[in-house]
């Protein structure tokens, strides 16, 4: 049986200066360390998401940047269109990569770059 996702709710207080502390459980969940940055994403329905800001090696790629901006705007504008991946699609994807081993730290060969 698949484990269902749980929503973790932790209250936090906003100070007079508009600041708050990211709760320890959330810092652990996001693997945040001291001086790490977070990104807040506000959706049209009032939902706010927080995630760790990842350093990107190819930040200057105009195509990727524009595409990601488009996705962010579309998700904020039409949050009801966001759907979970179906079990059948997930099962098919797992079957496609079954037995495939990838070293994410290995350098790409010239034909893969």
- Residue share in helix: 25-40%
Count of beta strands: 2
User: For the largest beta sheet, what order do the strands appear in spatially?
Assistant: 1-2
Quaternary structure state of the chains depicted: single chain
Helices and strands, in order, run as: HEEHH
Q: Count the helices. How many?
A: 3
Largest sheet: 2 strands, antiparallel
Poorly predicted regions are none
Shape: extended
- The proportion of residues in beta strands is 5-15%
Mean pLDDT: 84
How would you describe the overall organization of this protein?
This protein is of the alpha+beta class and 113 residues long. It has a domain at 20-55. The protein is 29% helix and 9% strand. It has helices at residues 24-29, 62-77, 87-97; strands spanning 38-42, 48-52. The chain has a two-stranded antiparallel sheet. A hairpin with a 5-residue loop joins strand 1 and strand 2 (48-52). The longest helix is centred in the middle third of the chain and has 16 residues, at 62-77. It is extended. The mean pLDDT is 84.
Structure characteristics:
single chain; two-stranded antiparallel sheet; 3 helices; alpha+beta; 113 residues
Concise structural overview:
This protein has helices at residues 24-29, 62-77, 87-97, and strands spanning 38-42, 48-52. It is α+β, with helices and mostly antiparallel strands and 113 residues long.
């Amino acid at each position: 049986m698949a484990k269902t996702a749980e929503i973790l709710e932790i209250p936090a207080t906003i100070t007079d200066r508009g600041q708050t502390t990211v709760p320890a459980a959330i810092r652990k969940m996001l693997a945040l360390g001291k001086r790490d940055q977070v990104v807040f994403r506000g959706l049209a329905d009032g939902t706010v998401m927080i995630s760790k800001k990842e350093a990107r090696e190819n930040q200057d790629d105009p195509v990727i940047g524009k595409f990601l901006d488009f996705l962010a705007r579309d998700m904020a504008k039409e949050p009801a269109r966001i759907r979970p991946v179906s079990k059948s699609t997930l099962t098919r994807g797992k079957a496609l990569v079954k037995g495939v081993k990838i070293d994410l730290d290995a350098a790409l060969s010239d034909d893969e770059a």
